[in-house]
């Protein structure tokens, strides 16, 4: 069969809903081939399916998901080989575009749809070597709508643009959203004051525990503790307790409230933002949080030639690239000038990457800042034993007053079941990362308390659109049709997830099915 005829037949079959036969019509990279038998695979190239070895907030068991996806896709006629990586290698190599299909996910850092759609699917993120758009999807219409939504002044206008983009993304299927995991954490009954946040923040300043020392366990260690130079949630879990931004999210949701800034104004063009700084805020080294420190914190990300520029300020590119300059008007006033109006700007300032750092700490540092961080948050850094624990202590000079506990020990215990045993025995007070099959057991334990929160996250299958045959939207659509998301929700998440229709969680206002206000 000629390649032209095979493609035409594939389209007919797809429109009829026949993913199995359609997949069997895939051709080799260089020549068309006839199918062996419907559902019996192809004589074309084998597709690799990459997965990784560590649970994430959006995915409790990546390997199990890979096995289910392989089974589902092979029933549809695809030839699949699973390739397993450690977490760091998986993320690095997918950013380099070395994969065919890859299991990935995203936890939203803000309550703005831009943080999902523009980051994961905008053409600006399809950069080999440092991609956030792991599908390397470059659609001019979609990117145009996403950019237009950034400068739109009303939520209604932005939502209409996002809905249009999502329809086109669903049709092109550069990635297949699978599930939105429900966050879960467990604590001893005697622990009070902690609450899960929609963004996945773990803030311990209001947590009360007998003895005033909180011992909290997680599955993986942090990588760095410089807020401008991290992308992983385990690092952010720590830095969000050490650093503060000009603004922050409310404890209950993603509305923005003052933090190091007491207020702000924006000019009629939407391009000049002026912030008034808090009078009593201090860094952990005793120096004041002033306008010069704010300028330093942002300039080191904006200017790659800055003497203290972070190695990879990924979030600057995606969330703050429109910042043209940052100026200290006086010691308590700082001004941002943007290249264009940017609707998500204020929300983005509440992200962990916008944490304000101490300039003096960089000048005095005997060790790299990422290993000896100095911020202005409710806790100060004490020590770090890699792959074991990070110790924090209460900062008595914090502008909101002393935290409810004196010390926080953040332990790394890789195995979920082992962490749960430690929680039951009382050697730790709280944990994240609970095996789905253990959730009912935690609920039934009178000594424990289970906290659950709809997750602002998505697990997805990325199709590398740079590599044949995945450069063909018909092939990607056939893959999407073959995936049974309900089965994955039931078997991988044990029901502790929502089937994904879009990369946007259904709690975000631009989701097609959003029914909030």
Provide a descriptive summary of the structure in words.
This protein has 517 residues and is of the alpha+beta class. Helices cover 29% and strands 21% of the residues. It is globular.
Short synopsis of the structure:
The protein is α+β, with helices and mostly antiparallel strands. It contains 16 helices and 18 strands. The N terminus is likely disordered.
The chain-level structural class is alpha+beta
Shape descriptor? globular
- How many strands appear in the DSSP assignment? 18
Weakly predicted, low-confidence segments: 1-43
Largest sheet: 12 strands, mixed
- Please give the count of helices: 16
Kindly state the percentage of residues in helix.
25-40%
What are the key terms here?
517 residues, alpha+beta, twelve-stranded mixed β-sheet, four-stranded antiparallel β-sheet, 16 helices, 29% helix, globular
Helices and strands in order:
Blueprint: H1 3-15, H2 19-24, E1 47-52, H3 62-75, E2 80-85, H4 87-95, E3 101-107, H5 114-121, H6 140-151, H7 155-172, E4 175-188, E5 213-218, H8 233-242, E6 247-249, E7 256-258, E8 261-266, E9 272-277, H9 291-302, H10 314-319, E10 323-330, E11 333-338, H11 345-348, H12 359-364, E12 379-385, E13 389-394, E14 407-412, H13 416-425, E15 430-432, H14 439-444, E16 448-454, E17 457-463, H15 473-482, H16 485-491, E18 497-499
Parallel strand pairs: 1-2, 1-3, 5-14, 5-15
Antiparallel strand pairs: 3-17, 4-15, 4-16, 4-17, 4-18, 6-7, 8-9, 9-11, 10-11, 12-13, 13-14
Helix pairs in contact: 5-6, 6-7
């Amino acid at each position: 069969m000629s390649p032209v005829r095979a493609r035409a037949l594939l389209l007919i079959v797809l429109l009829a809903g026949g993913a199995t036969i359609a997949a069997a019509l895939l051709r080799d990279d260089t020549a068309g081939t006839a199918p062996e038998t419907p559902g019996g695979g192809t004589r074309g190239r084998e597709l690799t399916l990459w997965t990784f070895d560590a649970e994430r907030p959006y995915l409790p068991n990546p390997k199990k998901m890979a096995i289910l996806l392989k089974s589902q896709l092979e029933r549809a006629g695809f030839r699949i080989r699973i390739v397993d990586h450690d977490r760091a290698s998986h993320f690095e190599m997918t950013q380099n575009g070395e994969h065919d299909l890859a299991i990935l996910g995203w936890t939203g850092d803000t309550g703005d749809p831009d943080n999902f759609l523009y980051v994961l699917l905008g053409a600006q993120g399809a950069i080999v070597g440092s991609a956030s758009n792991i599908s390397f999807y470059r659609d001019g219409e979609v990117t145009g709508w996403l950019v237009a939504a950034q400068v739109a002044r009303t939520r209604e206008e932005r939502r209409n643009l996002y809905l249009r983009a999502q329809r086109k993304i669903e049709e092109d299927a550069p990635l297949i959203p699978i599930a939105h995991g429900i966050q879960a954490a467990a604590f001893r009954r005697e622990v009070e004051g902690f609450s899960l946040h929609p963004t996945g923040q773990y803030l311990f300043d209001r947590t009360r525990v007998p003895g005033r020392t909180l011992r909290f366990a997680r599955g993986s260690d942090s990588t760095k503790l410089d807020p401008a130079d991290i992308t992983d949630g385990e690092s952010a879990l720590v830095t969000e307790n050490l650093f503060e931004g000009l603004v922050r999210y409310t404890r209950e949701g993603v509305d923005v409230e003052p933090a190091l800034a007491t207020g702000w104004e924006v000019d009629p063009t939407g391009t000049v933002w002026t912030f008034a700084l808090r009078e009593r805020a201090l860094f952990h080294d005793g120096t004041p949080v002033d306008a010069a420190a704010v300028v330093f914190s942002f300039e080191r990300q904006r200017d790659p030639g800055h003497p203290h520029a972070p190695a990879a300020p990924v979030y600057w590119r995606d969330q703050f690239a429109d910042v043209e300059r940052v100026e200290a008007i006086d010691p308590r006033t700082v001004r941002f000038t943007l290249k264009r109006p940017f609707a998500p700007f204020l929300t983005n300032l509440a992200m962990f990457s916008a944490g304000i750092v101490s300039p003096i700490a960089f000048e005095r540092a005997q060790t790299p800042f990422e290993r000896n961080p100095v911020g202005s948050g409710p806790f100060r850094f004490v020590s770090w034993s890699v792959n074991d624990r990070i110790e924090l202590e209460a900062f008595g000079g914090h502008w909101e007053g002393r935290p409810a506990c004196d010390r926080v020990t953040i332990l790394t215990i890789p195995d979920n079941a082992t962490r749960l045993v430690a929680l039951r025995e009382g050697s730790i007070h709280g944990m994240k990362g609970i095996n789905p099959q253990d959730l009912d057991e935690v609920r039934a334990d009178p000594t424990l308390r289970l906290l659950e929160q709809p997750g602002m996250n998505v697990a997805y299958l990325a199709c590398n659109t740079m590599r044949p045959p995945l450069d063909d939207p018909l092939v990607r659509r056939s893959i999407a049709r073959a995936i049974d998301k309900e089965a994955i929700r039931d078997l991988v998440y044990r029901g502790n997830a929502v089937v994904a229709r879009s990369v946007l969680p259904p709690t975000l206002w631009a989701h097609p099915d959003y029914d909030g206000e």
